[in-house]
């Protein structure tokens, strides 16, 4: 199942809802905006894996939003627009769009498949390594972790060992990770003990809970821990 976050910036609510519905069916997580200014703001806060972008938007048009995205990121952008004009299409590609789809499209599933294809190409060419699980985002390259909320982002203050532990468990959510594996591969102490792992897990659970994360580090008796969705 896909777990990537797709930001849909579209002012026509029926098209916006339809695209989100079809993306969700394929396992994608979605967020949306109905104007260009909010779309760019959402992009900066949420850091989505891909943006589906209309051109004819209120407040800021799609050209301006695309330019704003490219000034700070190489996140893939698919333009979905009613403007069947080669000049507009050329302008979008010059600004850095990854694909251009003309509305009305015959079936929303076509957009979903273009999203999948674009994401595959980006993985091949080496997109930034972000791990997402629920509202937790772990950046493997920047060694950071954040908890995303509709009102903003809370950055977790982690030690290197805590980040390595969290990243490993976030790569395999729901899978029990043995303590011995964590000790051998993910801790920097010279002589780490099982109690050290327990201490790191305790601190991580507190930090995740304080930040309002929808995940928890669950002990698995006789094995170790797993990262799972928080219940209740």
Task: Describe this protein's structure.
The chain is of the alpha/beta class. The strands form three sheets. It has a five-stranded parallel β-sheet with strand order 2-1-3-4-5, sandwiched between helices. The chain is elongated and about 65 Å long. A hairpin with a 2-residue loop joins strand 8 (144-149) and strand 9. 42% of the residues lie in helices and 24% in strands. It has helices at residues 13-25, 36-46, 62-70, 86-95, 108-124, 160-171, 179-186, 194-210, and strands at residues 5-9, 29-33, 50-53, 77-81, 99-102, 130-133, 136-139, 144-149, 152-155, 177-178, 215-220, 224-229. The protein is built from eight helices and twelve strands. The protein folds into two domains: 5-127, Response regulator (Rossmann fold); 131-229, Winged helix-like DNA-binding domain superfamily/Winged helix DNA-binding domain (Arc Repressor Mutant, subunit A), CATH 1.10.10.10.
What are its keywords?
42% helix; 232 residues; Rossmann fold; 5-stranded parallel sheet; Arc Repressor Mutant, subunit A; 4-stranded antiparallel sheet
Please tell me the overall pLDDT.
86
Structural category: alpha/beta
Largest sheet properties:
5 strands, parallel
Low-confidence stretches: none
**Fraction in beta strands:** 15-25%
- Overall, the morphology is elongated
Strand order of the largest sheet: 2-1-3-4-5
How many structural domains does the protein architecture include? 2
Q: Tell me the distance between the termini.
A: 24 Å
Determine the CATH superfamily of the largest domain. Response regulator
What is the helix fraction of residues, given as a range?
Answer: 40-55%
Tally of helical segments = 8
Counting DSSP E segments of at least 2 residues, the number of strands comes to: 12
Q: What is CATH's topology name of the largest domain?
A: Rossmann fold
CATH architecture of the largest domain: 3-Layer(aba) Sandwich
Task: Give the CATH class of the largest domain.
Answer: Alpha Beta
């Amino acid at each position: 199942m896909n777990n990537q976050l797709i930001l849909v910036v579209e002012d026509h609510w029926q098209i916006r809802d339809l695209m989100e519905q079809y993306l969700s069916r394929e396992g994608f997580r979605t967020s949306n905006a109905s104007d260009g200014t909010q779309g760019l703001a959402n992009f900066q806060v949420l850091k989505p894996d891909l943006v589906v972008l209309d051109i004819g938007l209120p407040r800021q048009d799609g050209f301006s939003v695309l330019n704003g995205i490219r000034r700070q990121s190489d996140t893939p952008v698919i333009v979905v627009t009613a403007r069947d004009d080669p000049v507009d299409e050329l302008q979008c590609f010059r600004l850095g769009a990854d694909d251009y789809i003309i509305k009305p499209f015959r079936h929303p599933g076509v957009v979903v498949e273009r999203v999948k294809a674009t994401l595959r190409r980006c993985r091949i060419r080496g997109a930034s390594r972000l791990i997402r699980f629920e509202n937790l985002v772990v950046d493997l390259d920047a060694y950071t972790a954040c908890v995303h909320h509709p009102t903003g982002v809370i950055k977790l203050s982690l030690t290197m060992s805590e980040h390595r532990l969290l990243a490993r468990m976030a790569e395999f959510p729901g899978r029990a990770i043995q303590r011995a594996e964590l000790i051998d591969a993910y801790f920097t102490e010279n002589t780490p003990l099982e109690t050290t792992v327990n201490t790191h897990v305790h601190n991580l659970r507190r930090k995740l809970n304080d930040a309002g994360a929808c995940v928890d580090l669950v002990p698995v008796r006789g094995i170790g821990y797993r990262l799972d969705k928080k219940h209740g």
